[in-house]
Amino acid sequence: MSKKNRRWSLIPNQPLTELDKRVLYWENKGREVPTRDLIKTPEQIEGIRKSGLLNTAVLDEVARNIHEGMSTLEIDEIVYNYTTQHGGIPAPLNYEGFPKSVCTSINEVVCHGIPKATDVLREGDIINVDCTTILDGYYADASRMFIIGKTTPEKEQLVRVAKECLEIGAEAATPYCFVGDIGNAIQKHAKKYHYGIVRDLCGHGVGNAFHEEPEVVHYGKKGTGMLIVPGMVFTIEPMVNMGTWRVFIDSDDPYGWEVISEDELPSAQWEHTFLMTEHGVEILTY
Prior knowledge:
Helix content is about 30%, strand content about 25%. It contains 5 helices and 17 strands. The strands form 6 sheets. Strands 1, 2, 4 and 5 form a 4-stranded antiparallel β-sheet that branches. The chain has a 3-stranded antiparallel β-sheet with strand order 3-14-13, with no helix packed on it. A hairpin with a 2-residue loop joins strand 16 and strand 17.
């Protein structure tokens, strides 16, 4: 459905709820609003929450085992084994040709790094481990940064600020806000450090599928993008580059997935899956 034709559907023979009134107010002003199918039912929310618990446990298992000298292929094996042993499915595996169970992005690799036996973690590396789990048909998505041993103050700051960007974006995500409110808050914080916020990739709705509406951009103007209402589930996952926000696809990657910062300076990213409630966001991937 195109944005132009998107409409909020009412439930026949039912009085207007507060949610209906708020959404219709903005729809009548020509703003982008969600469709009702983006509002998760209590049963769906519970399913996504359980998937989020497993996704968190998988990343905890990575945190317990990650160390200098291990390959990213070993990280992939940890993710696959732990996920499947606990009844889940690694969502990235074979997704649109992605060959592994997790994304492992080292230093200048912004995202979608493919685990390899030849990618061995060294002292000073920073690495993003991005994990998405399917449990009983429901999806949860999160990523963490890890610093291998001792790194430079510049990389430490980048990792810290990237996490702050996620937290600031979550604070800006309030009931009946717009996607642009989230992105604007993130971009302002990154700009203080002269960092670039990647524009070619974004957060997204999640839960019943790997990627759903809305697209959650991490830059932009307040009051733009889709209206966010209680019951929606989505990720915030700012990719923060030490230099330019521009990126390219690694020409040496036969799968066409690995994204690298254009100036090949380091990049950092943190991600959570959030449920919007009447009082603000709830993190489903703690």
